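Hi R.,

As promised on Friday, here is the backbone we talked about, encoded as structure tokens. Could you run it through your design pipeline when you get a chance and send me back a sequence?
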């Protein structure tokens, strides 16, 4: 049932994106990742991050990866399946390498852990070039 609900959320978000209703599509992705039934499905988070990246919203994409993998604002990581987590880490690394080609998976994971530890202090462990959205 969890996979079926995830498929419905993704179909809805894709429909909205195809109709160029990008704000509504973003809202649909947010509802999907917070859904108590399907919110822990890795492919929802991956699709959301890719959608944001394709729209030039790198901060939103980064935030999706972080929320899925380590959690944010006192919440735990949303994705627990190890295969899903491995895929999400790899995709996160590939996105980050577009601006920081020398970045390794270990360095990314350490930076994210440091960012999570500094949460609330206003510190950011990742480069400013990644921390801001670009584009419309």
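Update: got your reply. Pasting your designed sequence below so it's all in one thread:
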């Amino acid at each position: 049932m969890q996979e079926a609900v995830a498929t419905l959320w993704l179909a809805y978000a894709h429909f909205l994106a195809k109709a160029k209703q990008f704000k509504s599509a973003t809202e649909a992705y947010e509802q999907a990742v917070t859904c108590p039934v399907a919110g822990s499905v890795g492919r929802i988070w991956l699709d959301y991050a890719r959608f944001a990246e394709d729209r030039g919203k790198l901060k939103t994409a980064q935030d999706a990866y972080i929320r899925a993998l380590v959690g944010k604002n006192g919440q735990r990581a949303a994705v627990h399946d190890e295969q899903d987590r491995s895929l999400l880490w790899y995709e996160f690394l590939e996105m980050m390498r577009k601006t920081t080609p020398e970045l390794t998976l270990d360095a990314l994971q350490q930076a994210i852990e440091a960012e999570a530890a500094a949460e609330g202090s206003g510190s950011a462990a990742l480069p400013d070039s990644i921390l801001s959205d670009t584009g419309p």
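One thing I noticed while checking it: The two ends are 36 Å apart (CA to CA).

Thanks again,
M.
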